[in-house]
Amino acid sequence: MEVVTIQSEAFNLIVDKIESVHKRLDAKEKTPKEIWLDNTELMQQLKISKRTAQSYRDQGIISFSQVGAKIYYRLSDVEALLNKNYHKAFKK
Question: Distances in Å between the alpha carbon of 61 and those of 35, 47, 57, 75, 85?
């Protein structure tokens, strides 16, 4: 077995990095299970207009929640919409 020695400053940096990683992992466990996008975020993600988003809602193409005048979409519903309309390439 080989013994490796390092300066205390280097050791403390390593310990700090490990603690930082643990904190981030703990924070990830506390993140919400469902991510919600507002109307603006949906339009930016799909590169669509406000009217197109309204049309998708009116036609039942995408599910949504409305709180007052604010509209929200589940990220999982947006991904499902994209997956439903996915066309695999047939040429390689």
Answer: 19, 16, 6, 14, 11
pLDDT of residue 29: 62
Report the half-sphere exposure of 37 (CA within 13 A, side-chain side): 18
Decide: pTM greater than 0.85: no
Q: What is the spatial distance between Cα 46 and Cα 41, in angstroms, rounded to a whole number?
A: 9
DSSP string, 15-48: HHHHHHHHHHHHHHHTS-SS-EEEHHHHHHHHT-
Residues in Cβ contact with 44 at an 8 Å cutoff, skipping those fewer than 6 apart: none
Q: How far apart are CA 82 and CA 39, in angstroms?
A: 17
